[in-house]
Amino acid sequence: MNWEFAALAILAAALISGFAWYERTHPGSRMLALVATLAGLAAIGRIAFAPIPNVKPTTDIIFIAGFALGGAPGFVVGAVAALSSNLLFGQGPWTPWQMVAWGLCGVFGAIIGRVSGQQLGRIPLALLCGVAGLGFGAVMDGSIWVTYAGGQGITQYLAISATSLPFNIAHALGNVVFALAFGPALLRAVMRYRTRLEVSWSDAPPSGAAAERVASAPLAAIAVALVVAAAAVVPASAQAASAPLRAARYLASVQNSDGGWGFSGGSRTTAVATSWTIIGLAAAGYDPLSARRRGRSPKGLLRGWALRARTTADIERTALALAAAGLSPSTGGLMTRLVRSQRADGSFAGLINLTSYGLLALRASGRRARSSSVRKAAWWITRRQNRDGGFNFRRRGGASSIDDTAGALQAIAAAGLRRGSAAQRAVRYLAARQNGDGGYPLMPSGRSNGQSTALAVQALVAAGRNPDRQRRRGAHSPLSYIRALQSSRGSIRYARSSAATPVWVTSQALAALAKRPLPIRIIRR
Question: CA 464, 470, 473: angle at the middle one, nearest 5?
């Protein structure tokens, strides 16, 4: 095997891996549109500044894409920008090298974003864009070294690098200048779009009876201030609107005059129903705070509940709803109280369900998956997994339930352990308990219901599974079961045998229909 063939094989593997990585994030149509737009902008930037050798804003745009959107989207923006711009400049053996080099610039941006908490000033951003330009040049020097040098010794590479150094420096300096000029503005624009585009969430267990079963779900929110306006611009016909949009329109229609929601349309506002609804609307792609009745949004209610929340369940639920609404989960000292409530063994109140959603609240507040508090909670949860792979809400050995297993699986995935044995056993538990109608029961062998099905879907997505392909018996998926429960108004029944349409079930089902994966991210407005 010669050097050229080996290099091409490595490049092909890198490109396939990069695009597969992006595909595994299950990008929605809005993310696809954003990635395509940024790739097009990067390509146009290269074309527009073609007369000035190596001076172009392309690398800056790709770096910012990775910084704001993550490694997989950043890689794809870089690779697609190289491929598409070469339709004008000409394709050749250099194309895959450029695709990988610019893709790596996007990954580099994602790494910096993760390390910095996505907070960079103008000058550090510009300097790092310059570093990305030097890295791109180093990779392209390698392409010449492998393809044209006639020898692959270090001497040849250094000679090539010395020859190309003026061009690489020009590239880096150009990146610095462009980043100083427009970098922060572009970064704010992309971050603002991303803030409302792809946010992951989870809810804490409500305190009380059956309505208090808990779960979490990934979700994405895009900047669309149309929760209420959608009813005016979208035909009212059930056939003309998608299942998620119909559910969102229903939730907007039953909002109370104080800006919140009750357990059913027209009932008194509660923290539980309002929190679930905020999360569900965000999952469908709407800004929850743009939902208003008589000029009131749920923002004031959330802040009031944050100040008053004292029980672990209330703190977790409110923090997660705040994150989904684009507000800080630390509002009202919530996170301080939550951290103080975590026991030395990592649990919250010694309960599996509260520990699961406590972990998710920690992640929503910005705690890293590797932080001590998150790791301790995850370890505590995994140690209490039942032999069948499921979880009980209280202890190991108690009867496993779908809802509690879904919550625990979400937490394990949020802690970065979705490929571990505990997560895989939980996935197998859920897969084996699906009913023939596609839905899930609360307890194994029971009748399917919309709430448990929604929670199972959210957990499967968190674990990297496609719920559309989860069909244990017959041809029904859990999402098809949820859609079958939807009424012409858009509300979703608790079960086929029930006429009840609790607001929180519609909200949870709406989040499941969104199919958004983890990780959980705090929204910044």
Answer: 160
H/E element, 421 = helix 421-432
Phi, psi of 262 (to 5 degrees): -105, -175
> What's the CA dihedral at 79, 80, 85, 89 to 10 degrees?
50
Provide long-range contacts, Cβ within 8 A and 24+ apart, for 391-397. 391/352, 391/426, 392/352, 393/351, 393/352, 393/353, 394/351, 394/352, 395/352
Spatial separation of the C-alpha atoms in residues 518 and 412, rounded to whole Å: 11
The rounded Cα 117 to chain-centroid distance in angstroms is 16
Pairing of strands 216-217, 201-202: antiparallel
Sorted by sequence, the CB contacts under 8 Å of residue 344 that are 6+ apart come out as none
Q: Which domains does the chain have, with CATH numbers?
A: 3-195 (1.10.1760.20), 201-514 (1.50.10.20)
Q: Enumerate the H helices of 287-327 as residue ranges.
A: 299-308, 312-324
First-last CA distance in the chain: 53
Whole-model pTM? 0.57
- List CB contacts of 384: < 8 A, sequence separation 6 or more: 352, 391, 392, 395, 396
Give, for all 525 residues of the chain, the pLDDT tens digit: 455 666 667 778 877 887 888 777 666 666 788 888 888 888 888 888 877 877 888 999 999 999 988 889 899 999 999 888 888 878 887 888 889 999 999 999 999 987 876 677 889 999 999 999 999 989 888 888 777 655 566 777 788 888 888 888 998 999 999 999 988 888 888 876 665 444 333 333 333 333 333 333 333 333 333 333 333 333 333 333 488 888 998 999 999 999 999 988 888 999 999 998 998 888 777 788 888 888 899 999 999 999 999 999 999 999 999 988 888 899 999 999 999 999 999 999 999 999 999 999 999 888 999 999 999 999 999 999 999 999 999 888 889 999 999 999 999 999 999 889 999 999 999 999 999 999 999 998 889 999 999 999 999 999 989 998 888 766 689 999 999 999 988 999 999 888 888 898 999 999 898 886 433 343 444
Closest by CA to 105, choosing from 124, 67, 132, 65, is 132
Phi then psi for residue 437, to 5 deg, are -85, 0
How many angstroms separate the CA atoms of 376 and 370, rounded? Answer: 10
Using CA atoms, how far apart are residues 283 and 285, in angstroms rounded to an integer? 5
451 burial level (CB within 10 Å; 0-12, 13-18, 19+): buried
Q: Residue 473 phi/psi, 5° resolution?
A: -130, 140
Type and span of the H or E element at 175: helix 154-195
CB of 295 closer than 8 Å to CB of 288? no
